[in-house]
Amino acid sequence: MLRLLNRILSNKSPDKQLILQLEHLLGFTPNRISFYKLALMHRSKPEDATDSNERLEFLGDAILGAIVAEYLFKKYPYQDEGYLTELRSRIVRRETMNNVALRMGLNKLVQYNQNDRGLSRSHIFGNALEALIGAVYLDRGFIKTRTFILNQFIRSYIDLDTMESTDTNYKNKLLSWAQKNNKPLVFDTIEEKMEGARKSFTIGIVVDGEIVATGTGYNKKEAGQVAAQKALEKLNVV
Fold it and tell me: H-type helices in 12-123, by residue range?
């Protein structure tokens, strides 16, 4: 009788659909749904900015970095620190996280201001994935979070062979192009601003005195890489 009552109450739960979607996404049933609802709440949606996922994103980013570092450390026992650092950077960078989040279908779950068309083309879904990792950690602890990252993230969506063989140092590639073609090139910091609890940077690529591309990131190195990638595309540098 008690089981039947619980099932009836569960079927009437307004969060039932979300729980089913999260079960498919996570590979387990969440205990405290409030953490996950917050993880999926972009700051453009709630009236109170403290109800956004930015704090969970901060937490998830740190946990993701540590678990990916451990995974690479064990997988590549003979590689040096520089190699491991570069590969970890490729895995956790904003473009990778956003692409994975889209493939997971997180864009269908994230709550954001859909009237702002620029948001859907930004990295908010990758940020939500980091926040989701933070939610898993608070809800189920480190071991479950580690399992989720290894199984549902790395093994399901990260192609390490391709990442190892692909040169993603766009800044070096752009600098080489500029030197070869005798083009004056400058990486200029256009803007620094706070986004919630984190500072973001916007870097502009200046070629022949004109800004050809800009990129934004949570540090200048990341922003410079994003800007350099855009500049290479605009300049048709293969």
Answer: 16-26, 33-39, 54-75, 81-92, 94-104, 117-120
Confidence of residue 185 (pLDDT cuts 50, 70, 90): confident
Q: In what order do the strands lie in the sheet with 210-217?
A: 185-195, 198-207, 210-217
In the three-class reduction of DSSP (H, G, I as helix; E, B as strand; rest coil), residue 171 is classed as helix
pLDDT (0 to 100) of residue 7: 46
CA–CA distance, 190 with 147 (Å, rounded to integer) = 40
Q: How far apart are CA 162 and CA 178, in angstroms?
A: 27
CA 102 – CA 197 distance, rounded (Å): 25
What pLDDT is attached to residue 153? 95
Token pair for residue 133? 């990792």
Average pLDDT for residues 156-160, to the nearest whole number? Answer: 92
* pLDDT tens profile 208-233: 888 889 988 877 887 888 888 888 88
Q: Do the Cβ atoms of 79 and 151 come closer than 8 Å? A: no
Tell me how crowded residue 12 is: count the other CB atoms within 10 A of its CB: 8
In three-state secondary structure terms, 201 is strand
Tokens 């205990």 belong to which residue?
31
- Give the pLDDT confidence score for residue 67 in this predicted structure: 97
Residues that are catalytic: 61, 130
pLDDT at residue 129, rounded to an integer = 96
Amino acid residing at 63: I
- HEC per residue, 110-128: CECCCCCHHHHCCCHHHHH
> Are 133 and 60 in contact, with CB atoms under 8 Å apart?
yes
Q: Is 149 exposed, middle or buried (0-12, 13-18, 19+ CB in 10 A)?
A: buried
